[in-house]
User: Which sequence fits this backbone?
């Protein structure tokens, strides 16, 4: 059975919509404007980048800074990303090494089975991470200009650069290249929105106001409809009944990860899903995810769990109002502080737009961000 609904990267026909966001990224790439993608975890940020890169047909340096918690780790991953882009720009041939060595004079350039590699040419005692990152990016910029190529440098989990000992200087090295280049387009992303945006919104940080912010919201049901119906006809030769489609949207609350998770279960069925099948499949999703959801809750304080429980059972547009205060048995000021913490942790969110297929959503309403966690909290309320 084809995997129409991946829980990791959605590639090719697996990708759904994001038409406006794709257009914005394509425009920014053409104009060499750098972008910061901002969204909660599992909203499809990486899938969007890889889709746009594929459509643009440009060389890519894909760099993941997850748990890169020191200068050496950040530098190693940046060099690996630059090497990936070099391998996409240049023919992977021995005779190319001489030219590359001239461009990347501060590094050892070698040819491996998977392409070119880039390593520091100095010993550990004289290792300078800032110079290494700056020189590698400048070299990539020079090579791209020589080859008349535009290169995309995608740095995911960028907030983890904060853990490096020379974090500000490393960010400064990136800024130096980013503000001068006409050949490299930087795209940044991360799973901690609060920490990520601090790096770009804080006037004391090197990357302040150098990038366009692109915020991803949930995909609307009207955009999911043609995608799911096309796959339903391909699988069962029939479209999903409206009541089934609407229930998928309602249970998942349009959350991309959970739409894929639930549909992955439904598309295993031999026959067109019924309403009972949707409920049963959602329960199976919960059974598989239960341990993770419990672990997420255990990270919260007692007060945070109380407020989150109340949001799961009684989502509200007035969290500091009398009714919510009474339900949580907390003061308005405590709820305010707790809600801010939950939003920063991506445990709660404020609804930006309503959707006809999800009647429980109201604009301005505060809700549990994870619909399966909300389901669990209501189940055991």
Assistant:
């Amino acid at each position: 059975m084809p995997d129409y609904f991946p829980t990791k990267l959605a590639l090719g026909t697996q990708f759904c919509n994001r038409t406006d966001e794709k257009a914005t990224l394509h425009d920014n790439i053409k104009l060499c404007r750098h972008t910061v993608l901002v969204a909660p975890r599992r909203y499809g940020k990486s899938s969007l980048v890889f889709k746009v890169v594929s459509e643009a047909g440009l060389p890519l340096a894909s760099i993941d800074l997850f748990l890169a918690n020191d200068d050496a780790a950040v530098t190693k991953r940046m060099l690996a990303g630059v090497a990936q882009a070099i391998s996409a720009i240049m023919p992977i041939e021995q005779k190319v090494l001489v030219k590359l060595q001239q461009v990347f004079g501060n590094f050892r350039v070698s040819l491996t089975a998977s392409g070119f590699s880039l390593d520091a040419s100095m010993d550990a005692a004289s290792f300078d991470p800032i110079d290494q990152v700056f020189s590698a990016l400048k070299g990539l910029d020079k090579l791209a200009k020589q080859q008349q190529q535009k290169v995309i440098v995608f740095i995911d989990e960028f907030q983890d650069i904060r853990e490096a000992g020379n974090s500000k200087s490393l960010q400064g090295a990136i800024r130096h290249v980013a503000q001068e280049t006409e050949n490299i387009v930087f795209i940044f992303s991360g799973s901690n929105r609060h920490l990520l945006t601090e790096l770009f919104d804080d006037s004391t940080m090197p990357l302040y106001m150098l990038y366009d912010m692109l915020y991803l919201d949930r995909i609307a049901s009207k955009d999911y409809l043609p995608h799911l119906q096309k796959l339903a006809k391909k699988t069962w030769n029939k479209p999903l009944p409206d009541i089934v489609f609407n229930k998928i949207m309602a249970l998942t609350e349009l959350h991309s990860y959970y739409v894929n998770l639930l549909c992955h279960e439904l598309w295993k069925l031999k026959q067109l899903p019924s309403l009972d099948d949707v409920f049963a499949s959602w329960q199976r999703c919960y059974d598989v995810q239960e341990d993770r959801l419990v672990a997420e809750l255990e990270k919260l304080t007692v007060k945070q769990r109380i407020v989150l429980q109340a949001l799961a059972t009684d989502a509200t547009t007035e969290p500091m109002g009398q009714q919510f205060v009474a339900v949580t048995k907390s003061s308005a000021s405590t709820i305010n502080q707790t809600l801010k913490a939950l939003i920063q942790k991506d445990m709660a969110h404020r609804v930006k737009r309503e959707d006809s297929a999800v009647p429980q959503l109201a604009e301005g309403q505060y809700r549990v961000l994870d619909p399966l966690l909300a389901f669990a909290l209501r189940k055991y309320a």
The chain is about 50% helix and 10% strand. The first strand starts at residue 35 and ends at 38. Strands lie at 35-38, 60-64, 107-112, 115-120, 151-156, 184-188, 212-215, 348-350, 366-368.
